[in-house]
Write a structure and sequence with these properties.
The structure is a single chain. By secondary structure, the chain is mostly beta strands. The chain has strands at 2-6, 9-12, 17-24, 31-38, 45-50, 57-59, 67-72, 77-82, 91-99, 112-113, 117-122. Strands 2, 4, 5, 6, 9, 10 and 11 form a seven-stranded mixed β-sheet that branches. A four-stranded antiparallel β-sheet has the order 1-3-8-7, with no helix packed on it. A hairpin with a 6-residue loop joins β4 and β5.
Length: 123
């Protein structure tokens, strides 16, 4: 499975961005998908995930109510809509895939990763 993220960039605090992750080479509809982020000097952390059908979503507490994960199985794409961004959201954002549900606590147990997209929020 190959994953390619896009949509990152520089935005002012309070602004919005939508990240996309396009998947190829596998049965997208059978994979749980997730977004993780890694800030400089910090470990990669879970942000949001969505089940293969899209019926179940999870969010880390710091983004609940601000970020929304969704997927379009017809387009083999997962999205992360990010609103009310703040400087603490600055990080490289990675897309991940796993047969079944995304493992939130131990990122390395998710076998497929994109190359990441930089999100920078200025104050």
């Amino acid at each position: 499975v190959q994953l390619v993220e896009s949509g990152g960039g520089l935005v002012q605090a309070g602004g919005s961005l939508r990240l996309s992750c396009a998947a190829s080479g596998g049965s997208f509809e059978s994979y749980g998908m997730g977004w993780f982020r890694q800030a400089p000097g910090k470990e990669r952390e879970f942000v949001a995930s969505i089940s293969s059908s899209g019926s179940t979503t999870y969010y880390t507490s710091s983004v609940k109510g601000r970020f929304t994960i969704s997927r379009d199985n017809a387009k083999n794409t997962v999205y992360l809509q990010m609103n009310s961004l703040n400087p603490e959201d600055t990080a490289v954002y990675y897309c991940a895939a796993r047969s079944g549900l995304i493992v939130r606590v131990t990122p390395k147990l998710n076998p497929y990763w994109g190359q990441g997209t930089q999100v920078t929020v200025s104050s």
